[in-house]
Amino acid sequence: MSSQPQVATPDTEDSGPLPRPLGGRHAWITGGGHGIGAAIAAELGRLGANLTISGRNEKALAASARQIAAETGVACRWQALDIADEAALAPALGEGREAQGPVTILVNNAGIAPSMPIGKLDLATWNAALSVNVTAPMLLAQAALPDMLDAGFGRIVNVASTAGLRGYPFVSAYVASKHALVGLTRALALELAKGPVTVNAVCPGYTETAMAEQAMRNIVQSGKTAEQARAILARGNPQGRLVDPAEVAQAVGWLCLPGSTAITGQSIAVAGGEVM
């Protein structure tokens, strides 16, 4: 799925406080219409990058882009795109390149988390998780790498999960795909280590997002109250809470800075100490 992309621009000429270390960069964030993706886009915008946010919900993308442009003073382009459509990915980045210049920051944030016992996991669901959570990030990295190498600067950040560092029951496809994404991160980081591109992953624990809300609804269906469901998710975090999307976004922003060149191949847990 792809539609004609549009761009939200700031209402004023004020570019915000300086310095803006990512000024002139073009950052592409998948799943940028809400949750962690929208928070990452806003953070990179505050750091000066012009933005493309993609996702399946064009209405949410447009609203997010307009808000980010107004708050950060950068151009925020949005494009409806289903990253499970493998043939659409390279052309989509090509359109972005023509509109806003080379993509030198890629944040693979979009993901799906099917939940069911292993006995009920069908092959179509398994393949969908791998397609969205692993294959699309690989293809997008392939499409963006020529821009990064030509520019002499590149940042690839994969939003994995603590499920990429440990196991959880009833989400075997999600856990397997996020472990694979962490493995892809490490392999690409070593392959590209001699050049100007770094590749890292951030691994959030349960975060205040629609995905966590769905997990809480599933727990409620088992007979728990909403408060008990939230407590069940929060108890895995030693801080006793869910992570704020802005905390994940700030970690991503740091990894994208010019001064973070020596940080590559890392999988950084943003989870209050859940994984050490």
Task: Map the helices and strands.
Elements (H helix, E strand, L loop, with lengths): L5 E3 L17 E5 L4 H12 L3 E6 L2 H15 L3 E5 L5 H15 L4 E4 L14 H29 L2 E6 L12 H20 L5 E8 L5 H12 L4 H9 L10 H12 L10 E4 L6
Parallel strand pairs: 2-3, 2-5, 3-4, 5-6, 6-7, 7-8
Antiparallel strand pairs: 1-4
Describe the structure.
This protein is α/β, with parallel strands linked by helices and 276 residues long. It is 45% helix and 15% strand. The chain contains 8 helices and 8 strands, in the order ββαβαβαβαβαβαααβ. Strands 1-4-3-2-5-6-7-8 form an 8-stranded mixed β-sheet, with helices on both faces. Strand 5, helix 4 (123-151) and strand 6 (154-159) form a beta-alpha-beta unit. Helix 1 (35-46) packs parallel to helix 2, helix 3 (86-100) packs parallel to helix 4 (123-151) and helix 6 packs across helix 7 (226-234). The chain is globular and about 50 Å long. 48% of the residues are buried. The mean pLDDT is 92.
Radius of gyration: 18 Å
Low-confidence region ranges: none
What strand line-up does the widest sheet have? 1-4-3-2-5-6-7-8
What general outline do the C-alpha atoms trace? globular
Q: What does the largest sheet look like?
A: 8 strands, mixed
Span between termini: 39 Å
Oligomer: single chain
Mean pLDDT: 92
Instruction: Give the helix tally.
Output: 8
Order of helices and strands: EEHEHEHEHEHEHHHE
- Which range does the strand content fall in? 5-15%
Given the helix and strand composition, which structural class is it? Answer: alpha/beta
Tally of extended strands? 8
What percent of the residues sit in helical stretches (DSSP H or I)? 40-55%
